[in-house]
Amino acid sequence: MRTWQVERRKRTRHLIELGGLVVKTGIVDLTGDDRATILGALIWIAQKLQSDEREKALTLWATRGRQAFAAERDAWNFTAAQDRRDGA
Predict the structure, then answer these.
(1) DSSP summary character for residue 34
(2) Which residues touch 27 (CB under 8 Å, ≥6 apart)?
(3) Is the pLDDT assigned to residue 27 strictly greater than 80?
(4) Which residue, 32, 57, 78, 81, has fewest beta-carbon neighbours within 10 Å?
(5) Is there a contact between 10 and 1 (Cβ–Cβ < 8 Å)?
(6) Dihedral of alpha carbons 19, 48, 41, 70, sign
(7) Where would I find the beta strands (DSSP E) of 1-88?
């Protein structure tokens, strides 16, 4: 496989993962899949990161993100444990 193909696949995977985060937050459903609203929210985030509130925002958002990932992992582990117990 050519180098450009490998890089393109890596980029595609990265974009898919980022899109998955947008869906995971519920933003798509909460906005009725309104692309302008979603883009506006992302622009607001970018502006916040360019402001004097950058560090505070990064700390808050990273904490919330880690908590969400942990809750998702715990829910998945709980379901997997139930499936093993139930013989599924």
Answers:
(1) -
(2) 38, 41
(3) yes
(4) 32
(5) no
(6) positive
(7) none
